[in-house]
Write a structure and sequence with these properties.
The complex is a heterodimer. By secondary structure, chain A is mainly alpha-helical. Chain A has 14 helices and 4 strands. In chain A, a hairpin with a 2-residue loop joins strand 2 and strand 3. Chain A is globular. By secondary structure, chain B is an alpha/beta fold. In chain B, helix 5 runs parallel beside helix 6, helix 14 crosses helix 15 and helix 15 packs parallel to helix 16. Chain B has 2 domains: 185 residues, P-loop containing nucleotide triphosphate hydrolases (Rossmann fold, 3-Layer(aba) Sandwich); 235 residues, 3-Layer(aba) Sandwich (Rossmann fold), CATH 3.40.50. In chain B, the strands form 5 sheets. Chain B has a 6-stranded mixed beta sheet, sandwiched between helices. A 6-stranded mixed beta sheet of chain B has the order 16-19-20-13-21-22, with helices on both faces. The interface between A and B is medium-sized, with 22 and 32 residues.
Chain lengths: 315, 494
């Protein structure tokens, strides 16, 4: 019974892949299992974990947000600009989080109230936010921040890197929000059957809006870490940021049509990507091959999930 | 009699924990319509899926024209002249009729003209008088059904498996479908006809096979058997149709005055406390639209709606719910249930205020509320974490009803409450409705299943073409009278 329920868990495929990869890597590279390297994996994965958490909320409602890369850029540039103006760090951080949440609001409003497809909305806002960041910065990177800010990206507490601590806080909060609050409850229900939820008198608009705002907020947090780590805010977004987050979520068996999925799965997915990247670097795999291999691993994880699904359909 | 064209011998199929088919034998003769009956979960669909190749059998043999079929797949079935017409429509809605008929069969160099000409030829045979260029989306449910059949015929199918073919069809369309089936019979094709609707089966079929709990409970010539016998075999026990008794009826709880929207005209209705009001109407008569206005799904209407003498005109869905109204929609899969979610979640879905405290879910409360009410409605599982989509149709409907009972709704609107539900569950749902209406609560049932309305309602309002045609006390009236009114006023002719 227990075995079956484990097998039925949507995170099964990606977990197997992660464990398998972990064992494989520990044989292939003596450096892999060192405490330093493991912390390094967590550090490298922290932004992806945070992004994929936000993305999970959107995807379980049946939506998608392609604009997270641009939101991160807008948020980073604004934070940097504000700090350059001599404003205290904490105000800059609040401004950055506010603008990213606002970007999420715009996406959510267009998707939910105006009822446009999320794919198209966020494709458009991806370009809009990117443009806004370029206009604001004049196309140039903004760099050099106060120590207190850099600490968020490069510092550590009890030798644990600050980004890892931030990621853990985000994990704790989001798991709770997803499982225990009405936001997670209705986000899943909306993705499952929007009409049925509406028929029950639930304010679907409100919850969809919140979900996109959560994604915006999470992106803002990720933007703080990347900006602080690089000590520079780049006005050119990395478009793959959003897609990587989507990949991490989908790998864990979360259906793009909504209604199923979990934050835990997205975290495992992000870790899988992190271990993979780290491992390939340790083994001196050329970066061209790295992309290729990551793609293959995504397919394998999704394939395992498909097998699991057909198994559980047969009961 | 003709020889058998398809015969199935000792088929067994196990799903983990369930014996879905247990030594089932079944044969189909050339040129016959063979009805397959059984409650939900009796194994009808499983058997058909095995014959068509969507599922693999565990053991047993299948013979087609006396030669055994060793490996079966959908594509081989088409080659063998077997076609499955599933319950859900599979047309591509943006494509034309012709393209749909030829789907998967397109010649290497597609000449649209040729396809249209051939389609037109075929459509004539089924008396469809529209252009083959018409997109499928514009067709009525009945016409879509016919296109599905034509697609099968175009693949030279000699054996057609039809799963609930009359779901969502109007009486007129059912009649036309039967003509199509008779045409097919005339051409020596055989049909396996799966349905719950007893009247239809007795009208169209030559033989009837009843499945119960994965076993063949008997095969009969349609002429040699009665409905009662069939129902008894399906249920495995005798069901006595109970005539409703009437409790006291109190003051008016719902008034609809001069309601007009784009599909209904000047509807006046009153519902009293403790009353079961029936709205008898055929497909497209406006019965669903009335509910949509009362429940606030459609707020673009003229007229007034009063609930407990309070003016509730143009209320939203959540306002209507807080006034004590609940709606069980016609299509539970599309608008009723979150199929991937648990039973508990579905039952408590409208109870935002009750199950959340400062935004945080009270799991215990969800559990107690849902177990209490699923027991009340007689759900077949006590596992509240059970995925709703895996329940049978009747049990899914019970979950939706339990939702509104748990929510303390005083006025329940039921739209085709027993569509796609087996005979036994239908009786149970009727019983539930009666219990619910004992004194405090009231119900409006909209249905095209007139015997159902006659069985449970106190009063019946007949509507046709968006207008109230007649209001009747449920005394000394029968199906014919209702049907007469429902088809009057230039409504759908039968």
């Amino acid at each position: 019974m227990r075995k079956i329920s484990l097998l039925k868990a949507p995170e099964f495929g990606v977990s197997i892949a992660l464990v398998g990869l972990f064992i494989l890597m520990s044989f292939l590279s003596p450096l892999f299992l060192s405490g330093y390297n493991l912390l390094n994996i967590l550090l490298q994965s922290s932004t992806y974990i945070i992004l994929s958490i936000g993305m999970t909320f959107v995807i379980v409602t049946g939506g998608i947000d392609l604009s997270v890369g641009s939101i991160a850029v807008v948020s980073g540039i604004l934070m940097a600009g504000v700090m350059k103006g001599g404003t205290p760090v904490w105000i800059a951080i609040i401004a950055g989080l506010a603008i990213s949440t606002l970007c999420g609001f715009v996406n959510g409003f267009l998707v939910s109230k105006i009822n446009l497809p999320s794919f198209i909305v966020t494709l458009a806002t991806m370009s809009i936010f990117q443009g806004a960041a370029l206009i604001f910065s004049g196309g140039l990177p903004i760099y050099g921040f106060p120590k207190a800010f850099s600490f968020l990206g490069t510092g550590s507490i009890f030798s644990i890197p600050v980004p890892v601590i931030i990621a853990f806080v985000c994990i704790a909060v989001s798991v709770w929000v997803f499982k225990k609050t009405r936001i997670g409850h209705y986000a899943l229900a909306i993705g499952d059957n929007r009409q049925a939820v509406r028929m029950c008198g639930v304010n679907v608009f409100k919850y969809e809006l919140i979900v996109y705002m959560i994604n915006g907020l999470a992106t803002g947090v990720a933007a703080i870490i990347t900006t602080a780590r690089l000590n520079s805010a780049e006005p050119l977004a990395s478009m793959s940021m959003g897609l990587d987050a989507v990949a991490a979520v989908v790998m864990s068996g979360t259906s793009l049509s909504g209604g199923s999925g979990s934050v835990t799965g997205a975290i495992i997915g992000s870790l899988l990507m992190g271990v993979l990247r780290n491992g390939m670097t340790l083994l001196n795999v050329q970066s061209y091959y790295q992309n290729l291999i990551i793609g293959v691993v995504i397919l394998i994880a999704v394939f395992i999930d498909k097998i699991r699904n057909s198994y559980s359909y047969k009961k | 009699m003709e020889q058998s064209i398809l015969s199935v011998k000792n088929i067994c199929k196990n799903f983990p924990g369930v014996r879905a088919l247990d030594n089932v034998c079944f044969d189909l003769r050339q040129g016959e319509v063979h009805a397959l009956l059984g409650e939900n979960g009796a194994g009808k669909s499983t058997l058909m899926k095995i014959i068509f190749g969507l599922l693999k059998k565990d053991s047993g043999e299948i013979f087609l024209r006396n030669s055994e079929l060793k490996s079966i797949s959908p594509s081989k079935s088409y080659e063998n002249g077997i076609a499955l017409i599933p319950q859900e429509r599979t047309l591509l809605t943006h494509k034309s009729i012709a393209e749909n008929i030829f789907l998967g069969m397109e010649p290497a160099f597609v000449s649209k003209k040729e396809m249209c000409l051939q389609s037109l030829e075929m459509m004539k045979r089924f008396s469809m008088q529209i252009s083959p260029d018409t997109p499928a989306a514009q067709l009525s449910a009945g016409m879509q059904q016919t296109v599905e059949i034509m697609r099968a015929i175009n693949r030279k199918a000699q054996i057609l498996i039809m799963d609930e073919p009359t779901g969502g069809l109007s009486a007129q369309e059912v009649k036309r479908l039967f003509e199509v089936i008779r045409t097919l019979k005339g051409q020596k094709a055989s049909v396996i006809y799966i349905s719950h609707r007893m009247e239809e089966i007795f009208e169209i079929s030559d033989r009837i096979t009843v499945l119960r709990d994965g076993k063949n409970a008997g095969t009969f010539g349609t002429a040699d058997v009665t409905k009662e016998k069939i129902i008894e075999l399906m249920a495995g026990k005798k069901i006595s149709a109970q005539k409703q008794h009437k409790s006291s009826i109190g003051e008016e709880v719902l008034q609809v005055k001069e309601l007009c929207s784009n599909k209904i005209h000047n509807i006046n209705l009153t519902l009293r406390k403790g009353e079961i009001l029936g709205i008898a109407g055929l497909l497209g008569s406006g019965r669903t639209e009335i509910f949509e206005c009362i429940y606030g799904i459609n707020r673009d209407y003229k007229g007034r709606i009063f609930i407990n003498s309070k003016d509730c005109t143009h209320y939203s869905i959540s306002d209507a719910i807080s006034c004590g109204v609940g709606l069980v929609t016609e299509d539970r899969k599309r608008t009723g249930l979150s199929l991937k979610s648990s039973v508990a979640k579905n039952i408590t879905l409208p109870m935002e205020k009750r199950i959340f405290r400062r935004g945080i879910i009270n799991t215990k409360k969800v559990q107690t509320i849902s177990s209490e009410y699923s027991e009340k409605v007689g759900l077949n599982t006590s596992d509240m974490s059970f995925t709703s989509g895996n329940l049978s149709g009747g049990n899914q409907q019970k979950v939706v009803i339990a939702r509104w009972l748990a929510n303390g709704s005083k006025i329940l609107l039921l739209d085709e409450p027993t569509v796609g539900v087996d005979v036994n569950a239908k009786q149970e749902i009727h019983q539930l409705i009666r219990q619910y209406c004992n004194g405090e609560n009231s119900v409006i049932v909209a249905s095209s299943d007139f015997p159902e309305l006659l069985e449970i309602c106190d009063r019946i309002v007949v509507i046709a073409q968006g207008k109230v045609v007649k209001e009747l006390e449920n005394k000394d009236i029968d199906e014919k009278i209702l049907l007469g009114y429902a088809t009057s006023a230039g409504g759908e002719k039968i």
